[in-house]
Design a protein that fits this description.
Order of helices and strands: HEHEEHHEHEEH
Number of domains: 1
Structural class: alpha/beta
Shape: globular
Number of strands: 6
CATH class: Alpha Beta
CATH topology: CBS-domain
Strand order of the largest sheet: 1-2-3
Oligomer: single chain
CATH superfamily: CBS-domain
Length: 139
Amino acid sequence: MQHPPRLVRDLMTSTVVTLGRNDALRSADDIMRLGRIRHLPIVDEEGKLVGIVSQRDLFHSGLVRALGYGTRAHTRALDSLDVKEAMHTEVVTLGPSAPLAQAAKLMLERKIGCVVIVEDSQVVGILTESDFVRLALEA
């Protein structure tokens, strides 16, 4: 008996932490470090997705600018920058009813660690590599 295809909504994390584009980059760093989150969707004042920040973006925005001047310089760099200065505006998205296979294919082809799940321009979930690892462990 063949099972129906699994959908993004079956695997996505629906409790998504987001930040605004004008928030301090330091806030993104704190949230990501404390929450052990690698991808943070960025929304505008209406909650519409406008970008994404990854751990790699934080590394480049903070550390590269502080270039070896230690933790204080890194912290000052993160405090002096807004999220919009480090975020990527081209975000790969899918709807919650998309097949999981489509999401996996997108992530592999684009070499990205997550797909943001949107419905009516609002973030309703996130699907990450970790979700697929969890799925493999359930099999």
